[in-house]
Design brief:
Layout: H1 6-14, H2 17-27, H3 29-38, H4 45-68, H5 73-83, H6 85-93, H7 98-121, H8 129-148
Helix pairs in contact: 2-3, 2-4, 2-8, 4-5, 4-6, 4-7, 4-8, 6-7, 7-8
InterPro entries: DUF3429
Protein name: DUF3429 domain-containing protein
Organism: Wenxinia saemankumensis
Length: about 150
Amino acid sequence: MTRIPLAPLLLGLAGLIPFAWGALTTLAPQIGLWSLEILGGRFTGPYVGLSYGQVILAFMSGVLWGFATKAEGARAAAGYALSVIPALWAFFMVGGGPVSAAVNLIAGFAGLLALDAAFSGWGLAPPWWMTLRVILTAGVALCLAPVALMGG
């Protein structure tokens, strides 16, 4: 296991803040009410994590696209094609209410982790990439789980 450089680690963990805030304001009604009053509905409860999750899946498509630029020939073509999947997943699969959106986001991040592993296996990602991605994917899934488990 290669050590994750401090900047990507800290920035990656900071990127979990909106997900954690969404989980907290979903699970703690008093904090949720305060957030709703002060920050508004977009930054409260399931909505902050769900909208931010879509943004991050689209962002990660761009990261994978960047990795694909390091490849050549058929591997590059495959990398470019695979890199658009997270953004398309977020666009087509996240909707229909908070529970299904959260379930589909968790599935999208799990699929992204598989793509990360492929790009890493092809030698296109930094050696520490998978360690960071496992940590962040677990954090995202844990934070989206309360919404996914809310029920109808």
